[in-house]
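Internal QA ticket QA-208
Title: Verify multi-chain structure generation after dependency bump
Assignee: T.L.

Test input:
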Amino acid sequence: MASRMRIRAQLKDDYCEVKALMRHPMETGMRKDQSGAAIPANFIEDVQVLHNDAVVVQAYWGAAVSANPFLGVRFRGGAQGDVVKVVWRDNHGDSGSGETTIR
Amino acid sequence: MGNLDPLGLTRRGLIRVSSALLVVAALPQKIWATALRPETAFQTTTLEATFDALGGVPQASDGIIFSTPDIAENGAVVPIRIEIDPSVLPDVSKLYVIVEKNPNPLAAVFQVPPNTPPYAETRVKVAQTGNLYAVAEANGELYMMQRETKVTLGGCGG
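Actual output:
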């Protein structure tokens, strides 16, 4: 389930911009498959953005976030070469993460 | 004398202990994921109930810069962006994305510590034409900005 995440962190004027693209079906639990059986809900509930291991953004999501979710956030105090990490966990307990350095 | 029967006591005790252990074993994972997740708000099914769960109907504020498309060709992928003008609305610690006509209107929450500028970009599903709300929480007060998005193809297709 957990697979590679595309992540980028870039210094702007007075903040660092983080953009991440996760791989996840984000199933609402309201769709049915071809046989008419309900497809169980499976979505990311919790996302954290970390700068040098400190949480700079904590997000909670519902099933209404689109499949293969995109996340764009900003934080202050980043310097070139610092580690930025995005960690997610879904309602099944599966998790995934991506890491990059600020450029 | 059933309750003096050592075997019976042991078995009952064992069941009690093992079920307690199960509860304890199940807890830690769940705590990390849901300790602060506004579960009740995520479960609400109407806009009014969502606002209630968050603490009331927010007041309109120009300090929230909310970008959404006027027309979404694909309701399954509607890009949204929330930015805060701190000169109008300082001390924002949380952003909420609410889609009025969705089965569960609350789509996402973004929580930031004091030094992080409140800003969020993502893509959400929009079931049908209706209002999208960006709600900001600052010092316990709620503020909002609304935008209408027309959907030509629903977001919960299947």
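Spot checks passed. Chain B has a mean pLDDT of 85.
Status: verified.
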